């Protein structure tokens, strides 16, 4: 079992639908991440939040809209997606690093498998 | 982002040691070397990390070359459960707001034969 919980596990949506992916952790982590993973490919970083504020956006299209309503929750709002957006969406969290020498591994959830029809 | 190069795939036998290589010739002096693995149908999980010295933990050992241009993840006695994709990542220490930027490379798919 993972300490980062993602819901739903599977989602099928049409190109005109609006849906949201949810991620929750209770480890006290104040950094949270969204990754996208296509089949047989490595995870690709999408967004990074630090203290509930967006700190990195890797030039992700605006049809993906992240939200961090509090320190335990991370959402990814989806609207007008394309079939090529079908992928496994992974959420992760970690402690904030206060110095270069520190390390805090990322804890990943098992992902939401999204299919866009 | 500094780049890593790993073999696409490797195969080993159960209960034998496995050495997974990683080249990172453009590594900077402040880049930490991280290893994660991804078991089938799961998210990635942290394995080990290091800067200059060799490191051991309950999962594996990390051997880092003296010039830091390469490293090797060592699984001392592989089990079937170790079959996974192993990623070698250089963590960017230019941290924005205290979060980390981990950029995954292609990784090595490790197969363990019974």
Quick description:
The complex is a heterodimer of chains A (117) and B (114). Chain A is mainly β. Chain A is built from no helices and 11 strands.
Please explain how this structure is put together.
Chain A is mostly beta strands and 117 residues long. Helix content of chain A is 0%, strand content 55%. Chain A has strands at residues 4-7, 10-13, 18-25, 31-37, 44-50, 53-57, 64-70, 73-79, 87-94, 107-108, 112-116. In chain A, strands 2, 4, 5, 6, 9, 10 and 11 form a seven-stranded mixed β-sheet that branches. The relative contact order of chain A is 0.33. Chain B is mainly β. Chain B is built from no helices and nine strands. Chain B has strands at residues 9-13, 18-23, 32-38, 45-50, 55-56, 61-64, 70-75, 84-91, 108-113. In chain B, the strands form two sheets. A five-stranded mixed β-sheet of chain B has the order 1-9-8-3-4, with no helix packed on it. In chain B, strand 3 and strand 4 form a beta hairpin. Chain B is globular. The mean pLDDT of chain B is 92. The A-B interface holds A 2, 4, 30-31, 33, 42-45, 48-51, 53, 55-56, 90, 92, 94, 96-98, 100, 103-111 and B 30, 32, 34, 36, 41-46, 49, 85, 87, 93, 95-107.
